[in-house]
Known about the structure:
Radius of gyration: 32 Å
Shape: elongated
Structural class: alpha+beta
Number of helices: 16
Amino acid sequence: MSANPPKRAGGPRVEWPAQRDAPSLPRAAALALVLLNAESRWIHRRVESIDFLDEVRLRRRMSIDFTTPSFRDPTAVDEVLSIEFLPLMVIKREPLNSLDVRDETGSALPVLTRDQNAPIASLLLQTAARSLRRKRVVSEIRELFDELVGNFPGVEAAAIGDEERSLRSQIALARFRFATRRTSLHDLWERPQMQRWLQELSDQFILFVRGDFEAGKRRVLKLSYETTLDQTWTSLGFSFPFRWLAFKLRKAVEALGLIPYSTGFATPSLFDAESYHVEVLAPDQLIVASAKLTRQSKSRETGEKIGPPRIVDEQRSRDRVHLYASGTTPSAAQDALLEAGEYEDAQVEISFALRMTLVAPVLALSGLTTGVLGGGLLLHYTHRTHPLADASAALIVAVPGLFAGWVAPGGHRLVQRLFKGLRLLVFFSALVSFLAAATLVVRLPAGWRSATWQGLAIASAVTTLIATLAFIRSWLCSPSASKGHQVEVFWASVASAAVALALGLSAFPVWETWLAFAVVVLVAMLIGGRRSLRGWENEP
């Protein structure tokens, strides 16, 4: 079906929405240019909440507190222009899944589509070019502006794909950047304000909402959308192939709980309001090890970092973090950055760690397996005794493996990713205990059983060492307020492991093991049980 179907003879005259809105778009672009060049003068506060849906998807919610300024028509006395298309932010050009914008009453506000947005963006560039050069914008420059923002009049939206739009945009930007001297294109590119707009709109777009925004009235709008994180190996600061190896190694170490899981995302809204507040929620069974709100100067020409980042706010060891920034970059400083060919980028850098309550059972299980094997070898070499080679003794030695199924994280995909390595440790500890039990029911040559137990004990000790380091890391990252309860749960896990250890050593026909079993059970009941109950009673 064509974009402009023919009118029926004698039928009603049809005026499509795009045709009806066309006369108001130049004024909307001019107002948007003024608003976006001075956002901190009418946007009082931006409050953003970040929720990790999984390891790559974010749910971003933002409330915008603002007062629209008064625009007066120069051709009419005391006539205040209304704002119909309000620019909320300049955002990366990518799909915004589940986008929702609402006002104070909870009513949904219409958001301009890509094809409705592009004409205003092109007119904005034309307005900026006219104000800087005081000259009429020729058709060649208008066409380049259209290519750069993805405005293709008379062409159906589906006829041009996303890749072709991006390619055309970059080609248009390159024509400005590498234009011959003493031409109109070069003259525009040499002006810092124009260069900033050209670069920003080449890979970003202006998020417009439509409504009746009365001048001088304070309003609060709320928007939410889903976005994705850059988790590719190319984002690491190494040369190929070391970037790929470093990425894989980091993922493996993160999965073992030895280092926190670190990621980051851009927050350009930091510079667009008088004050900015971002809250990051940690998924269940995770804690925020550290969070930083940083500002980084970069070259506008190459995008390379200039100097070290400046930390605006920082918090550590929290269930949720709140980062604040008050006061924007002064106009003089912004002009100095433009003249120097630089710009500032804002970033939230955040690290997550597993809670102790998730790591403690892994440590208890691997320590139990190591204790049974090590204790058995100790009894074998000190008392010259052997375990009972029957099914009951094998069942007792296999006790650690029976508990492996109980050590599992929740359903959040980020938690599952960070627990993946520890899950392998649990599986390995269960396998070791079953192999040790199997040696008690299978007839082996002389000396093979003790040699097998030695090898299994060494392997289990390595597993316990890794689990211990992961527990220490989790302890160091835990909030002080929640360490009390997590310590109680740890003692409960230790008590359970102690009982099972004594039970496992009872497979050896030595009377001291039975005495140790009774003592350990009594101590575990008095210490571990009392501490765990007290911890659960005080749990917030």
